[in-house]
Amino acid sequence: MSLLNNIKIIDLTRFVAGPHCTLVLSDLGAEVIKIEKPGKGDDLRIIGPKLLETSLWAAVLNRGKKSVSLNLKTKIGREIFLKLVQEADVLVENFRPGVMEKLKLGWKTIKKANNKLVMARISGYGQNNSTIARQAFDATIQAETGFMQISGEEKKPTMIGTVLLDYTTGLNTAIGVLAALNKRNVTGKGELIETSLVSSALSLSMGAVPDFFLNKKNFGKHGNSDRFSSPSNTYKTKDGFVHIMAGSDDRFANLAIAMKKKSLINNALYKTPQARLKNQSKIDKIVETWTKKNSIKYLGKILSNNSVPWGEVKTFSQFLKTNTAKNYLIDAKIKKSKIKVPECAIKISSKKNVIKKAIPLIGQNNNEVLKKLGYSQSELIAYKKKNIL
Questions:
Q1: Into how many domains does the chain fold?
Q2: Residue 68 near residue 36 (C-beta atoms within 8 A)
Q3: Are residues 24 and 157 in the same domain?
Q4: Is residue 157 one of the residues assigned to a domain?
Q5: Considering 282, 315, 348, which residue would you say is the last residue of a domain?
Q6: Domain range for 174
Q7: Distance between alpha carbon 226 and the CA centroid of its chain, in Å?
Q8: Alpha-carbon torsion, ordered 210, 213, 214, 215, to 10 deg
């Protein structure tokens, strides 16, 4: 039996944060019914490279879900939606604040339809901030929360290379859903939970919040070097780059031994973590003088032998060819074509957990899902003609 066996989720999300949340829950065994716009589907379907007219972004995030097309701007569409809600355990939505209320599908309505349901709401800035109800994307929140000013090395603001805040918010939401389901198991009542990209950004800021209020320190750029320990940086080699993390006393001593520079261990400039951080540029220069003379293969062997954490700087395509990456990839299907996608990041020991591989077309599961609610084939055909489905 899967971990979330018999849990039914209504997925009313678009783009990345919400779909990533429901993908995780789907991979843990929940049945996810994705509600999409008739004809157009989730906005994610038009983004990025495609195979057989299917976006690979949408393929990754919609894998294993059931697709029902439904026009929520129509009275019948909302009636069908509320019938789905009545039989569901969880509803996840990531519209702008106020949109669900305009659709007459706010929490009060949802709770009245099913008081056992867990409703998760994802937004950019939070549901209660009436001054900021505009659309938000990962990059715009990176800009507003300071993340573009802590990334990269140039003076120009630099975006993180992926939609980190979206994915973090998706995971935070999944955790909230699971916690609310646990509470429901005790009380028998549903719960409303809320997450936002802004709160996710703050949760990733380490000690920067108290440091600002206590010491007025700004959380600025630091390149590839660690903010709080040294030597911890990216260094040139004969044939590329390696990243070395040797900020603690024991790791620094091991690095000094690997470099055949034991005298550095008791040198007053580098003897303590605070001293090494103060003299960061000097110790980085010493380390890079050594790494530049050697190959990555040699450095990797001697660093590993001396228990110094290191990593070769690879391109993404180089990483995907490694055995490590292959251990976390699975085959999925767009129609009859196979594609490689990341598997669920949470490993489950039970062999009974089913890996969901199919990517649904828009409205592919209309008949399967809606006939269970009591709708006849003739009704579904009529609703299709009226653009309700």
A1: 2
A2: yes
A3: yes
A4: yes
A5: 315
A6: 8-203+328-385
A7: 23
A8: 110
Tokens of 143: 């800009």
Report the predicted TM-score, pTM, of the whole model to 2 decimal places.
Answer: 0.93
Residue 381 lies in a domain: yes
Domain boundary among 315, 344, 375: 315
Sheet holding 310-312, edge to edge: 232-237, 240-245, 310-312
Give residue 153's pLDDT: 83
CATH number of the domain where residue 265 is located: 3.30.1540.10
Q: How far apart are CA 89 and CA 93, in angstroms?
A: 14
Residue 347 reports pLDDT greater than 80: yes
**In the chain, count of helices (H) and strands (E)?**
17, 13
Active site residues: 166
Phi, psi of 331 (to 5 degrees): -90, 135
Mean pLDDT of 210-239: 92
The residue to which tokens 């005298």 are assigned:
263
Q: pLDDT tens-digit profile of 164-176?
A: 999 999 999 999 9
Residue-wise pLDDT tens digits, 319-333: 999 999 999 999 999
